[in-house]
Design goal:
7-stranded mixed sheet; 15 helices; Aspartate Aminotransferase, domain 2; 420 residues; Aspartate Aminotransferase, domain 1; 2 domains; alpha/beta; homodimer
């Protein structure tokens, strides 16, 4: 059967358990919400759903930022929307790189015409505030762009001190929380972060395709100066902003603000099902409770770490600074990492992640996030990994991994009311 | 109840019948397909679905273009992806404007740094080939960018002659088929159109959020010259292209081709549910048959036209060049167009469209496309319009509209095997 004939078969994907670095299995309630009837984008009901979605994400971002809304695209669409709207050609942008998604920011900032200054730390480590301060002092950037969590390395960069330093050196701070938001604390206002973007497909338990963002007044002021309304849509008495025109229409935050605003100035046709998904992800997360969701991710992460250690597997990187929701595990010597991943997929329908760059072929990345930050998902994955590793000739005492994971969950059950 | 409290209510949109210019009600089968389990983007099953989706859209675009794939964003994301990847700063771009979406192309091309040349015709008309030829001769553009159908005016621009002229004057031709594809014939290869983009939310019966595009070898050559792979992802022995770097990462067609290609070079995380939707839209359309779907749209459009004329409503624009799937109707003198739209929405759950620009307050736009290009949808809409117009004091003989529409359907049933 060729591709064309196969295309007429009904969709029937195997029920994979997605324990990689994302995307992960979406919460079935989110997928169901996406089946709700389509509404016109200026239907009062739809506008209400938009406003509600903004309110929900303010809670998730722990912010009072008015401009907390959705970019219709995958996570990097949110990054690019903020960059292209904030960065004017020639602006100095400092990117501290501690993994692949730091490199992505370098690349996007360069395409926006930025004078990009890069500092790097080895993969598996995070930056110390002094390193950031030295770069701030030296380069005096307009914008600092950094990941909270870089899935490529599993590391979680502490941000409170960096944010304080950015204020001190009068730089805007953008944080990419795609991999981390929902699984790790990110109090945007308390830490004074200026702009954040994320995606639905990791700790928020949704499908990829929508990027929630939040920007504060400092960013809004920069963006508003560059407001150039589409031809024919400028209101009476209005004039275009004095700043340089934003190089993208689709990602123009000034126009998107007008669209998400009560005035509802026409821009794109909002992705209806995407909005439904974003709203449902946030609604379910907040119903469970932000603290509870953090704790659930922390617990799943601890169980995975305990299991790997019990099995005699070495963990990658600075474990004290690991994201709760993804764990890097060294592929043991003599074991073919891709054969293990393939057996997990073919025999168990379980997906774990490979790695990029300097970690390529050396480290697996095992996720436990969003809908998959569940006890059963962690236990099943650990058991399957034991079985496959044993079959591949890795010496381990069968059952030690899963028992260790179970012990973490049992202990937590006594100690806290967290839903596992 | 404030927005935040309301946000915790379950999604429960009213079952609107969307008979405006789009978005329209998605086919329920498409929404259901979006509930299929999420797959990892490099899962062999998912890669197969991507390849299948490309094959399906080649049929819909009537092309053999290898590069027929999806942009993860709403329809204007597809426009911008093609523009930013093809247009280098200073390139001359000719935009023939016959409605609002012509203006949008001017705006996007300007943001890409193009030297934009605009020719305009009045809203409600289309261009004659001589007008295009005069502009081609005068401006010698690299790219001509035009709508096939501009929903703002309901007009359908004939393209065969224009495409021939573009070859003659060595210009690339980009066609925005967002509003028209699936409801009106667009044989991309037969007409020698170089690039086309569309959206799912009109005649393809899906939700907004994905933009299928196709580009031929002429466009691919331009794009490939500008190939600049992301930092750290350049393969051994590969070098960056000699052309200027594309100003967007998200919309970089060269990188997107590498991602959609068998080599599957990492880029964004494909919007899983969006791909499922795109595949299902195409699969359902082709199962019904391209000719049959055109005929179904033509029939619905004829029924709507007959109904409006029977009710004594004047039609907007050059009817000989109207899209099958949307009909402009003058708001009768003395009738408040917005009161009528509001009554249709509040009392009947039916949405019809208002208009922009010079047509604002003067014309309603009634759609009959995709899943809503159905006999029952047309009849129900016409009946409701009759009722509301009568209540607003418009003099008409009740039932004339719906009887006229029904007569068109009855006549067609005798004449053709088209599913109504």
């Amino acid at each position: 059967m060729d591709h064309y004939d196969a295309a007429f078969e009904e969709l029937n994907p195997l029920p994979r358990l997605l324990m990689g670095p994302g995307p992960i299995n979406a919460d079935p309630r989110v997928l169901r919400a996406m089946s709700a009837p389509i509404l016109g984008q200026f239907d009062p009901q739809f506008r209400a759903y938009m406003v509600q979605t903004m309110a929900l994400y303010r809670e998730i971002f722990q912010t009072r930022n008015e401009w907390t809304f959705m970019i219709d695209g995958t996570a990097r669409a949110g990054i690019e929307a903020i960059f292209v709207s904030v960065i004017e050609p020639g602006d100095v942008v400092l990117v501290p790189v501690f993994g692949r998604f730091g490199n992505l920011k370098v690349e996007i900032a360069e395409r926006c015409g930025a004078d990009v200054k890069v500092i790097e730390t080895e993969w598996g480590a995070v930056f110390r505030p002094e390193e950031i301060e030295a770069a701030l002092r030296r380069h005096r950037p307009k914008l600092v762009a950094i990941c909270q969590g870089d899935t490529s390395t599993t590391m979680l960069q502490p941000l409170a001190d960096i944010a304080r330093l950015c204020r001190q050196y009068d730089a805007l701070l953008y944080v990419d929380a795609t991999a981390s938001l929902g699984g790790n604390d990110l109090p945007v206002d308390a830490w004074q972060i200026d702009a954040v973007s994320t995606g639905l497909q990791k700790c928020l338990a949704g499908p990829p395709g929508v990027s929630p963002i939040t920007v504060n007044d400092r960013v809004t002021a920069v963006v508003r100066r560059r407001r150039h309304v589409e031809r024919g849509l400028l209101g009476p008495g209005e004039s275009q902003g004095p700043g340089t025109r934003i190089a993208s229409n689709y990602f123009d935050l000034a126009m998107l603000m007008d669209y998400w605003d009560e005035k509802g100035l026409n821009h794109h046709t909002e992705a209806t099902t995407g909005l439904y998904a974003a709203r449902e992800c946030a609604r379910l997360l907040l119903k469970e409770g932000l603290e509870q969701v953090f704790a659930r991710h922390a617990l799943a992460g601890r169980a995975l770490v305990a299991a790997c250690q019990a099995m005699g597997l070495a963990l990658f990187g600075d474990i004290a600074h690991k994201m709760a929701n993804v764990t890097g595990v060294y592929i043991p010597e003599g074991i073919d990492g891709e054969r293990v991943r393939s057996a997990l997929l073919q025999d168990f329908n379980i997906e774990i992640g490979a790695s990029f760059g300097p970690m390529r072929g050396k480290v697996w990345r095992i996720g436990s996030m969003g809908y998959c930050a569940r006890k059963d998902a962690v236990l099943i994955t650990v058991q399957a990994l034991e079985t496959v590793l044993a079959a591949e000739g890795f010496r381990l005492l069968r059952g030690t991994g899963v028992d260790a994971a179970l012990a973490v969950y049992r202990e937590a059950k006594g100690a806290s009311p967290v839903r596992a």
